[in-house]
């Protein structure tokens, strides 16, 4: 579990995509307008919480890019 919530982040570091064993990522309540493509390399990611951001684009075809992911609503 990596909790980066409530940090006023505008961008995430590209290196997040290298955290291959990461299962849960909380980036809620930041200032993010988009998510990095490198997040798509997180094959073990099961929970992504990006609520409370300024996201302006959705994942292509679905709000959840990863089949195994749970996206909070």
TrEMBL record:
Protein's UniProt keywords contain ATP-binding? no
Output this protein's name.
Leucine-rich repeat-containing N-terminal plant-type domain-containing protein
* Pfam families the record matches: LRR_8
Q: Which residues form the signal peptide?
A: none
Q: Which controlled-vocabulary keywords does the entry list?
A: Leucine-rich repeat, Repeat
State the organism of origin: Malus baccata
Q: Which GO terms describe its cellular component?
A: cytoplasm
- KW Signal (keyword) present: no
């Amino acid at each position: 579990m990596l909790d980066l919530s409530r940090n006023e982040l505008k961008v995430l570091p590209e290196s997040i995509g290298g955290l291959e064993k990461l299962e849960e990522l909380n980036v809620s309540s930041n200032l993010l307008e988009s998510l990095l493509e490198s997040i798509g390399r997180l094959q073990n990611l099961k929970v992504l919480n990006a609520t409370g951001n300024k996201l302006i684009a959705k994942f292509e075809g679905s709000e959840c890019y990863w089949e195994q992911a749970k996206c909070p609503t």
